[in-house]
Specification:
Pfam families: DUF4019
Number of helices: 5
CATH class: Alpha Beta
Radius of gyration: 20 Å
Organism: Collimonas arenae
Protein name: DUF4019 domain-containing protein
Shape: elongated
Order of helices and strands: HHHHHEEEE
Largest sheet: 4 strands, antiparallel
Signal peptide: 1-29
CATH architecture: Roll
Keywords: Signal
Helix content: 25-40%
Strand order of the largest sheet: 1-2-3-4
Length: 165
């Protein structure tokens, strides 16, 4: 499972900060059913991109997203990213991050659902941001970040030969 620090390193996208890991236990406000509903919503919504239903993604997103990016820019963004990455071959959700009242967004309860995804041309992390509204999770953001592994460390130099005695 990817760690928060790894996702932060590979995300590089401002505005979708991952503030803290969501630990699911009875004391928390988020119920297991709500978490399941959020993952289902995020999974269904991101699958629209796979079937080239990007206009439907935009129209079913929340007003926060629709105010921050035009439909035309949304379509261009997804077309560019999908062209670079190629077709999806595998996806599974990897992490959920719960955020309350984040900076630069209206007050409320938010979740970021991160997917570890493999496309024909590269692995990537997909993040779907959701806001809770009227008991439902509404998508308000989608960021795909191509995973670029760190360069391999150079081989260690060979030990120097011992001087003859």
């Amino acid at each position: 499972m990817m760690t928060l620090s790894l996702l932060k390193k590979i995300s590089g996208v401002a505005g979708f900060a991952m503030i803290g890991l969501l630990a699911v236990n009875p004391a928390q406000a988020q119920s297991n059913a709500s978490i399941d509903a959020a993952v289902a919503t995020a999974s269904t919504w991101v699958a629209l991109a796979d079937s080239n239903q990007t206009e439907r993604m935009w129209s079913s997103s929340g007003p926060t997203m629709q105010k921050s990016i035009s439909k035309e820019d949304w379509l261009k963004y997804l077309a560019t990213v999908k062209t670079e990455l190629g077709a999806l071959t595998n996806r599974h959700w990897e992490q959920i991050v719960h955020v309350t009242n984040p900076a630069d967004l209206p007050p409320g309860e938010y979740l970021n659902v991160a997917f570890a995804s493999r496309f024909v041309n590269a692995p990537a992390v997909e993040k779907v941001s959701l806001v809770q509204s009227s008991g439902k999770w509404i998508p308000i953001g989608y960021v795909i970040t191509k995973f670029v592994p760190a360069p391999a460390a150079p081989p260690a130099p060979a030990p120097a030969a011992a001087a003859p005695k």
